[in-house]
Design brief:
The structure holds five protein chains of five kinds. By secondary structure, chain A is an all-alpha fold. Chain A contains 13 helices and no strands. By secondary structure, chain E is of the alpha/beta class. Classes of the chains: A mainly alpha, B alpha+beta, C mainly alpha, D alpha/beta, E alpha/beta. The complex binds adenosine-5'-triphosphate (2 copies) and magnesium ion (2 copies).
């Protein structure tokens, strides 16, 4: 079953008989023989299966990821985390801020309450239910990760997209714009991420928003460079030239051709940034720039608060730490396997 | 393991103490921070001091002191036979040389962070430099009446005296070192002061204290002391002592546990019991501080006394004391620790009663009170060991009483700014006394209108001025008691607790007497 | 090559200039000034205002910046408000500690990461590979300060194998020549100092190494895997070369190129990463000092240190680029 | 009148270098004074070694490369002088087929959208102004959409693909099919001229033949004009009416396809022709081979005089390395005047007056000891 | 008999790749051929038919895992003295293979740039093989390397030794690769599309070089290419591969003069020939290699064949001797074999009209879309 017809105009079915056919077949009428042949061929080629329709690179990547244990582990972790985060108020048995058991815990005397029937993960240093705090904390943590990533993604994409588009299509003037934007990005890159975050946090004052903005800003140059790099490499591809040859406007080429094709690495990076954001947020909390509001427990804050009790009640620190590590691991695994799945080198 | 690190120095291993930060200068006069004063107390002595382990003022370099009737002339009888580290002898002229130097400082020395305590106690200078805007001078003169008698005159009486004479900033230095410092200015251009060399490199400054400064290693934030054998009192228990900075509270504890250090200050309450259990010496200081919850009365609801009372009833202060503060702390009934004269047993008290609080709020028409509540991050203060925990507990209590709390946190520097400017309706703050005088507490807060409190009570302010200006000690104390009662009626805030800050030592060490003013004399400590 | 270096150095000027303006404006806008950090709690509003004035902070920002620029041209980064010592002095006082720490971390990361990544690639799909990949992912995902804490609790507090704080045991006498403890110790043959300093470097070094180690392991692995599939490796095999020749000359040499870049980038980030590690281990380096400076609003220190760190970062990258071009003739040609 | 007339076209790429600000330190003379003209309905084939500037020339016509100098007359207008917006519109009439069939298709666009893009950009299709009168806007839009869709399907069918391909993505097709899509993309705009840059060199032989047949077929049906660029002389000769041979940025010989094959004059053309393998052992065994020494010199630093003199077996002591030969009609002979050569000694070579020096090629052939 | 044993006898070579989730791919499936000293054997076929895999299998360069190699490839390693040492290249130890590679067996790859290590100077890459197999080092090795480079026609070899691959032109890179291959005078050389990436003029140089090598050194050359033109000029015996199996094997004369397998015929019909009259359409094979069916189901070529019958789908067709009469009445030794149940007789080939015969293609196309 050829997918390509021959362009030979004389190749009209049934024009002449088939030469050299053996005697046995001569008895069967020609058209029947032909039909049988077609059927048989179709049958033989049938099991090869169709390549799938309307699928793109993403779909293919998805297919590949479905077979990767790394991707599956990552996806399961992330899915679990997201489900917990979304439904946390339903899952948490108690209010995360209720100090209902406040008189049972004495941090000043080193007396803590471990896991027990009513409190599966025990109580924290102020007599709050650790399990509920972990569950509700997942939501805050997810929020931090997502918003920080969006901040970095959004501004990074604008900067990088601008630079990339200008560099590829803007001619001489565009290269100047690209140059200027890149200088700014270089400047941001040269500034140590954590210090950048710390100063941002100090500027805005400690809060959840601060952490999200600080972590997000620190990611801007990474996204920007990535997108710019991808756009420039895509911009040198022949399909861009083809679009230009069609007479498509430059702005449209940048937006509908180059940009969508450059988003792959950026999307991969977003997944990885989610992990980074969660870890960086924890670091900021450790430095005292985390969420001040006890009403919204967040793992990073919980971890940094619990460090004080690490030797007497290690579990207070270990639960949120594990939460952070596992979640970050989930996103990293997912991102890495996505990267692998999208890698043109690994694609046939 | 007792010879770890013993390779250097003498034959005895050095005693290593961890502070929270490096010192700022070798000359305490230029400093404002506790770490510098901790260092300077080992090296320099002041005219007056506090009793070992207490807050009573006792003689230091002066054995006797007297004030004139109007309290403006102070006469000190110096201790005989006191020798400076550089061999100079202590006499009245030496003391006056110090005071004269201070009074005649010029230029950047007059900047408020280079002569903060001078300006606070003695006002401005002989010639005030407008650039730095120091206040009017209060110091008049220092005269050596005879070899061992010093007469210091001030322009007006203040309850700052005689306590002010005990401030570590006024450690007396030897005449030779003063000479050597002469002409050493605070350098750098405007806005970029660099401290003079004598305050950075050991060798110039010489005091009379039990230790001499051997070395200040700035890259390690480490200062090394040697025993001063010519000390007039009991010689120091350690031959060598090192104070090194570990800013992080957990790191300090872990370093002690790992035996990298032999003592540290600012022990977290949570660590006290475990450390004691593990065989460390964790003596508890006497209480000399107050932690309070301030009600900023520019806030509409807080201007209502009933609301303030309601909030006072809403907070379960006992729980804070029981679960968060170190053992030995207690609920404060007034803005004044009970270890200090002027404490009144008769102040109005507020029981924890959430329902009553709710009722009162309802009466005042604030059932749905929403209020911002600030706390500082990244600090522990002796009176406030875990700000966030305390904040969380209070928040929970307030919410129990139906108040909706909006949490805000600031870093310490910003926190002071915000609370000072009255931007926080509710906030946590406190004070540790510098010396034994009630004015050092309530006077700091309620001597006049301030945006920190938003209190505007002329009667209170007048009374404060009157009492504090009274040179008669007994009358003054009675006055302070009344004032305390008055304050608790006005209820500008809720005193929460007075809690004893702890200091920890290795089990091998006989700790010094611990001081409520956190002014330990490490000469008293020794190896077991 | 020289042209390239000069060009890069000249490009540094606008970058640093821009960065300094950015920092200047930004930092001065931080809420809460030094007047709150430097004076005691009971200072009055007048006193604070006076301090601001005497520090020159009441001048318009532009004026402040210009005088800052003027000084910077003369190599003066101002003085720390906290310690009143010149910022440059402060930097070089603390830089050796951080540098030693960073070098230790990098050494750990490289000496462990390279072989591990290489082995993982060679034994692709085996338990070793799985462990290396898993371990490095875990390394990336564990918050550094938490790891540092765990290391300290286990190896310093409980086992007592390594010291938990400082750069050198207190009281240990040493000769200070360069500020680099280990180097000085080696130069003066003070072996006890060297041993002591090294012991102090182990735990913070490990903690700081965790991320570079993980990154290098993964990069090496990926890079080796990629190179092993390259045509020229096939050619080398077709020439019948010994396996070791193929692996060293043809595989490793090419595989290490991208790793070199990564090492450079990581080295830059180590100085910033030191903030966390240093504060956990009370290690007296630039990280902890900068952190303290943010708390006290020590503008000159913040501006100066960040500029210096950024310069260093750019320099390290320049070095990487140069070494890259030495290693890769294709780049050299350009 | 020619459909496309290129006069003395030059495309130089600046080589930039500098410490702070980039200075231009030289130029890559990718195309260095080429003139040619293409008649309507003709196929013009351009051959030459890799790097000789064929692609650059093709792109310059479409102004996808900056033109340094020269004129490109198309349809009575000098494209080199058009402002960018008019040039953009002009592109509807000038289309291009690229070498890499996959690379020149946006992987994220389905075939339908790839083919529609050009129509939408140039607003082709839909009711004419007259027809559109009185129609509502949405109606007009509907008609336009329908018409464009029809045109797309039409183009697809012309290249032998069915309308089912519309929803599919480039990577789902085989190489030959992708190249057909590339051709359809050019075709749908109904251009006057299609520039094919190495349209078959990335394809397998059998597919290559399919595509070549298709191109010819389309020309027969639609009367297209082609500029076919390729490095394979056999391919070019197979499809072209006129063949131009390029060497290092300039045209060395131009003649009607058959004439060029029968009487190649320029030494480069001769050696090129002798190097093309013929799938016939008898021919191969008897053929005389002119082997060239060395490689193409760098276009940034081309040899003086005749660009080919460094490799030319017929090189003479005079002129060759000093004077650049012009592309000129061949003197004498039956030359219809269409045979043009850029060689000082073309006639002498043709007549056998000048013989190739053996030694140059010798060293390679008998180089093995 | 020893003298008549071929240098390398490949018998029923098969290579299957296993990939997780993909099952088994038989890239090479029972290919047999022999190589003789001083002779050139060609492997021809479209992309993906298993040419490279065959060569890699012989060189033992297939990946360690996920590959199953069957059959045998017996090579005569030495015939010094009476004793003949033979070894099956597919079975000998890795160590032994490494010793053979480079010294007895050498290979030239398709892409000269990617086949050279970009960061190692050419000199080192040449001398390392001398060091490995001939124990040369230092100055003698360098001198030998210079000599080698000179022999393959690299001008100024002394300077080139210190240069890196990217500084060389494509032709020179390929020469350098050839220099490495011939460094130890191997008895067997495999060239995997050595000229595909090169220009025709350069290709001619390289082919000439290879030809000389074979005639002068008596090396056996396995020439892999998809270009029948190249094969026509160079090879003595030719194997046409399709989908992993040889479909036709013959000496070059008969193969080009009287091809019998429809695939071979199709390939020949696909090539535009420089010497063919212009305007004649090509007659390519339909479809592409993607359209194969499994050999187990019948002839893999059937879906593209204009010639197939039901018989073709009745299981794998065997390799059979071509019935005589197809040209020269040659002896039984020179085998012309094909794998076709319904071959094209020579008479038919001549008659093109018959070849362009009925097909089911049209119908199929509609079904598939
Ligand atoms: N954008 C560019 N900048 C600088 N030089 C260029 C650019 N594009 C092409 N060149 C140079 O111009 C010369 C001609 O290139 P061009 O691509 O036109 O050659 P070509 O004949 O199409 O070769 P090929 O057969 O390899 O496609 C080459 O030396 C090339 O390096
Ligand atoms: N490592 C591998 N894993 C799986 N399949 C492979 C591998 N290498 C080759 N193949 C498959 O084996 C078949 C034959 O490949 P091979 O490289 O031998 O083709 P070729 O004839 O050399 O083609 P080309 O002309 O493109 O070089 C192809 O279908 C290819 O997909
Ligand atoms: Mg080209
Ligand atoms: Mg191949």
């Amino acid at each position: 079953m050829p997918t390509t017809p021959s362009s030979n105009p004389s190749e009209v079915p049934g024009a002449t008989g088939v030469p050299g056919v053996t005697g046995a077949e001569e008895k069967i009428p020609f058209h029947k023989r032909k039909a049988a042949k077609v059927d048989r061929l179709a049958e033989l080629m049938g099991d090869r299966g169709d390549d799938g329709h309307g699928s793109g690179i993403w779909r293919e990547a998805f297919q590949r990821m479905r077979r990767s244990p790394m991707a599956i582990t990552g996806a399961v972790i992330v899915a679990l985390f997201v489900v917990i985060a979304l439904f946390s108020p339903l899952i948490a048995p108690y209010s995360p801020t209720s100090q209902a058991w406040g008189n049972e815990v004495f941090p000043n005397r080193n007396e803590f309450v471990g896991p027990r029937a009513g409190n599966w993960l025990g109580l924290d240093h102020l007599g709050r239910d650790m399990f509920s705090r972990m569950v509700i904390g997942a939501r805050q943590t997810l929020l931090v990760g997502v918003v920080a990533t969006l901040v970095g993604f959004f501004f990074g994409a604008i900067l990088g997209g601008l630079a990339g588009a200008c560099s590829v299509l803007g001619g001489r003037w565009g290269r100047q714009v690209d140059n200027v934007v890149m200088r700014v990005i270089d400047m941001m890159l040269a500034m140590p991420t954590l210090l950048l975050a710390v100063t941002v946090a100090a500027l805005v004052g400690p809060s959840l928003t601060t952490v999200m903005i600080a972590v997000g800003i620190a990611q801007i140059p990474i996204f920007a460079r990535l997108l710019r790099g991808a756009m420039i490499s895509q911009g040198n591809r022949e399909y861009v030239l083809a679009a230009q040859a069609l007479g498509v406007r430059k702005r449209k080429i940048a937006l509908t051709h180059i940009l969508p094709n450059s988003m792959g690495p950026v999307i991969v990076q977003s997944t990885l940034t989610l992990a980074t954001a969660i870890i960086d947020a924890a670091a900021l909390s450790y430095l005292g720039l985390g969420n001040p509001d006890a009403n919204f427990p967040e793992w990073g804050t919980m971890l940094s608060e619990a460090q004080r009790f690490l030797s007497s009640a290690p579990s207070l620190a270990v639960y949120p730490a594990l939460g952070i590590i596992i979640t970050a691991l989930g996103f990293t695994l997912l991102g890495e396997s996505l990267r692998e799945a999208l890698d043109p080198k690994l694609r046939k | 393991e007792s010879d770890r690190g013993g390779a250097g120095g003498g034959d005895e291993q050095p005693f290593v103490f961890a502070s929270a930060g490096d010192i700022a200068s070798l000359d305490p006069f230029l400093a404002t921070d506790g770490e510098t004063f901790r260092y300077s107390r080992q090296v320099f002595e002041t005219l007056l001091e506090h009793e070992s382990g207490g807050s009573e003022i006792v003689g230091g370099l002066a054995e006797t002191w007297d004030q004139s009737e109007d309290g403006t002339v102070w006469t000190f009888g110096l201790r005989d036979g006191v020798e400076f580290h550089d061999g100079d002898e202590l006499n009245a002229e030496a003391v006056c040389a110090n005071f004269d130097r201070w009074f005649n400082l010029t230029g950047a020395y007059q900047s408020s962070n280079n002569s903060y305590y001078w300006q606070k106690i003695f006002g401005g200078f002989a010639e005030n430099d407008e650039d730095h805007a120091p206040p009017e001078p209060r110091f008049v003169s220092c005269d050596a009446e005879d070899e061992l008698t010093v007469v210091i005159e001030v322009s007006e009486y203040s309850s700052l005296y005689p306590g002010g004479f005990s401030l570590a900033a006024f450690g007396i230095m030897s005449p030779s070192s003063l000479e050597a410092m002469e002409g050493q200015e605070i350098g750098g251009e405007e806005g970029n002061p660099t401290l003079p060399e004598y305050s950075q490199v050991p060798g110039t400054v010489a005091g009379t204290g039990p230790f001499t400064v051997e070395e200040w290693n700035q890259d390690q934030s480490e200062i090394t002391f040697n025993r001063f054998d010519g000390y007039w009192g009991d010689p120091a228990g350690f031959e060598t002592m090192i104070i090194r900075a570990i800013p992080d509270e957990n790191a300090r504890r872990q370093a002690l546990e790992a035996n990298d250090i032999h003592g540290y200050d600012l022990v977290a309450p949570a660590d006290v019991a475990p450390l004691q259990d593990a065989g460390f010496e964790v003596p508890t200081r006497d209480v000399f501080n107050v932690l309070y919850l301030a009600y900023q009365q520019d806030h509409e609801a807080l201007a209502d006394l009933e609301v303030r009372e309601a909030l006072a009833h809403a907070v379960n202060r006992q729980r804070i004391v029981d679960t968060i503060l170190p053992e030995g702390g207690e609920v404060a009934t007034q803005f004044h620790p009970d270890t200090l004269d002027g404490w009144s047993p008769n102040v109005r008290e507020f029981e924890y009663d959430s329902e009553l609080a709710q009722e009162k709020l309802a009466d005042a028409g604030y059932e749905d009170l929403e209020i911002e509540f600030c706390y500082p991050t990244e600090v522990t203060r002796p009176y406030m060991p875990a700000p966030k925990d305390i904040f969380d507990v209070i928040t929970e209590d307030l919410q129990e009483a139906g108040v909706t709390v909006e949490a805000t946190s600031y870093e310490w520097a910003e926190y002071i700014n915000q609370t000072d400017s009255g931007n926080c309706p509710l906030y946590l703050l406190g004070w540790t006394g510098d010396y034994n005088d009630a004015y050092n507490f309530i006077g700091t807060w309620f001597a006049g209108p301030s945006s920190a409190w938003g209190v505007d009570d002329e009667e209170l302010f007048d009374k404060m001025a009157e009492v504090s200006g009274n040179p008669d000690e007994e009358e003054r104390v009675a006055g302070y008691q009344e004032l305390n009662e008055m304050v608790m009626d006005i209820l500008p805030g809720l005193p929460i607790s007075s809690s004893p800050p702890s200091i920890a030592f290795s089990g091998d060490v006989n700790p010094p007497n611990v001081s409520p003013l956190t002014q330990e004399n490490f000469a008293e400590a020794s190896w077991k | 090559m020289l042209r390239f270096i000069v060009r890069r150095l000249l490009q540094l000027i606008p970058t640093l200039g821009g960065l300094s303006i950015l920092l200047f404006v930004w930092l001065q806008r931080l809420p809460g000034g030094p007047e709150y950090a430097l004076l005691p709690d009971d200072a009055t509003a007048e006193q604070r205002a006076a301090l601001r004035r005497s520090l020159g902070l009441d001048e318009p920002l532009a004026v402040q910046y210009l005088s800052f620029l003027g000084r910077i041209v003369q190599g003066d980064l101002g003085t720390s408000l906290q310690t009143s010592r010149p910022v440059l002095d402060e930097f070089f006082l603390r830089f050796p500690a951080t540098f030693e720490l960073a070098v230790t971390a990098m050494l750990i990361a490289v000496t462990v990461g390279l072989p591990l990544g290489y082995l993982a690639a060679r034994k692709r799909g085996t338990v070793l590979d799985f462990a290396a990949v898993g371990g490095s992912l875990l390394g990336i995902c564990t918050p550094v300060f938490f790891l540092a804490f765990i290391l300290k609790v286990i190896f310093a507090e409980n086992l007592g194998w390594f010291p938990s704080a400082f750069r050198l045991s207190p009281g240990l006498s040493r000769t200070d020549i360069t500020g680099f403890v280990v180097l000085d110790g080696l130069m003066t043959r003070e072996w006890d100092v060297v041993a002591d300093a090294l012991a102090h470097l182990v735990l913070p070094g490990l903690a700081l190494a965790s991320i570079p180690l993980a990154v290098i392991t993964r990069m090496t692995r990926a890079s080796v895997l990629e190179v092993m599939g390259e045509d020229y490796v096939r050619t080398a095999n077709a020439k019948g070369l010994h396996r070791t020749t193929v692996r060293t000359r043809h595989v490793l040499r090419n595989a290490l190129l991208p790793v070199v870049t990564a090492v450079g980038l990581l080295a830059g980030s180590l100085f910033a990463g030191a903030v966390l590690t240093e504060s956990v281990f009370a290690f007296p380096g630039i990280g902890s000092f900068v952190y303290a400076a943010t708390q006290t609003r020590d503008y000159p220190v913040l501006t100066g240190f960040i500029l210096l760190i950024a310069t260093m970062y750019v320099f390290i990258n320049l070095l990487v680029d140069i070494s890259y071009s030495l290693l890769d003739p294709r780049v050299r040609a350009q | 009148m020619s459909l496309l007339e290129i006069k003395d076209l030059k495309v130089h790429f600046p080589i930039k270098r500098g410490v702070i600000i980039d200075r231009t330190v030289g130029h890559v003379r990718a195309v260095d004074g080429v003139s040619l003209s293409i008649e309507p309905g003709q196929t013009y084939g351009l051959v030459g070694e890799s790097g000789c500037g064929k692609t650059t020339l093709g792109r310059a016509v479409l102004r996808l490369n900056q033109i340094t100098e020269g004129e490109v007359w198309f349809d009575g207008r000098d494209l080199a002088r058009l402002d960018s917006e008019s040039m953009r519109r002009e592109r509807a009439k000038l289309q291009m087929v690229f070498q890499d069939p996959l690379g020149s298709l946006n992987p994220r666009q389905n075939i339908g959208s790839i083919l529609l893009e050009g129509l939408q950009t140039h607003g082709i299709g839909g009711p004419s102004d007259e027809e559109a009168r009185g129609l509502s806007r949405s109606e007009r839009r509907r008609l336009t959409t329908e018409d464009q869709h029809r045109r797309v399907v039409d183009a697809l069918e012309r290249v032998g693909l069915s309308a089912k391909a519309l929803q599919r993505y480039p990577h789902e097709f085989s190489g030959g099919q992708r190249q057909r899509i590339g051709i359809a993309r050019a075709l749908v705009l109904e251009p006057d001229l299609i520039i094919c840059d190495e349209p078959v060199s990335a394809l397998d032989v059998s597919i290559q033949a399919q595509v070549l047949n298709l191109l010819e077929e389309l020309q027969g049906e639609l009367g297209l004009t082609y500029l076919v660029i390729a490095h394979d002389l056999a391919v070019v000769r197979h499809v072209s009416d006129v063949v131009g041979v390029m060497y290092l940025g300039s045209m060395v010989e131009e003649a009607a396809s058959d004439e060029l094959y029968e009487t190649p004059v320029h030494p480069y053309t001769r050696s090129l022709m002798s190097a093309v393998p013929v799938p016939d052992p008898t021919v191969e065994d008897t053929r005389e081979r002119i082997l060239l020494a060395g490689d193409l010199p760098s276009p940034a630093n081309p040899p003086t005089g005749c660009r080919f003199h460094t490799r030319c077996p017929w090189r003479q002591e005079e002129l060759c390395d000093t004077e650049r030969p012009e592309l000129r009609p061949l003197h004498g002979e039956e030359g219809s005047g269409t045979h043009r050569v850029a060689c000082h000694y073309a006639e002498q070579i043709l007549s056998g007056e000048i013989q190739p020096s053996e030694e140059r090629a010798e060293r390679i052939v008998h180089g093995m000891s | 008999m020893s003298s008549s044993t071929p240098l390398l006898a490949v018998d029923e070579l098969s290579v299957a790749f296993h990939r997780r989730g993909h099952g088994e791919t038989r890239a090479v499936d029972g290919v047999s051929f022999t190589l003789e000293e001083g002779k050139v054997t060609g492997l021809v076929g479209e992309s993906g038919c298993g040419k490279s895999v065959t060569s890699l299998a012989l060189m033992g360069l297939l990946p360690d895992r996920g590959v199953k190699v069957g059959g045998s490839a017996v090579m005569r390693l030495s015939d010094r003295g009476e004793e003949v040492v033979e070894a099956d290249l597919l079975r000998i130890s890795n160590r032994r293979m490494r010793d053979l590679r480079g010294s007895q067996l050498a290979m030239i790859f398709q892409d000269p740039l990617s086949s050279l290590n970009p960061v190692v100077p050419i000199g080192v890459q040449v001398t390392e093989i001398l060091k490995r197999h001939r124990g040369m080092r230092g100055t003698p090795a360098r001198k030998e390397a210079v000599d080698l480079l000179y022999r393959v026609g690299i001008p100024d070899p002394d300077r080139r030794l210190n240069e890196y691959p990217h500084q060389l032109s494509g032709g020179m890179r390929q020469r350098a690769l050839i220099a490495m291959a011939v460094a130890c005078k191997p008895r067997l050389m495999i060239a995997d599309e050595p000229t595909t990436a090169l220009d025709v003029t350069i290709q001619a140089q390289i082919l000439e070089l290879l030809k000389d090598l074979v005639t002068e050194e008596g090396t056996a050359l396995l020439m892999i290419t998809h270009d029948l033109g190249v094969v026509a000029g160079l090879c003595d015996d030719i194997n046409v591969l399709y989908a992993g199996r040889a479909v036709e094997t013959a000496e070059r004369g008969p193969l080009f003069a009287a091809p019998t397998h429809p695939y071979t015929v199709g390939l020949l019909g696909s090539i535009p020939r420089l010497d063919a009259p212009r305007g004649e359409p090509l007659t390519p094979v339909r479809g592409s290699v993607n359209d194969n069916i499994a050999w187990t189901d019948g002839c893999a070529f059937a879906p593209r064949c204009d010639h197939y019958t039901m018989e073709c789908l009745q299981g794998p067709p065997p390799l059979v001797q071509v019935a005589n009469g197809a040209g020269e009445g040659d002896d039984a030794g020179s085998a012309h074999v094909h794998r076709c149940v319904n071959p094209i007789s020579h008479a038919v080939v001549v008659d093109r009209a018959v070849l362009e015969s009925p097909a089911v293609a049209g119908d199929d196309e509609e079904e598939r879309g």
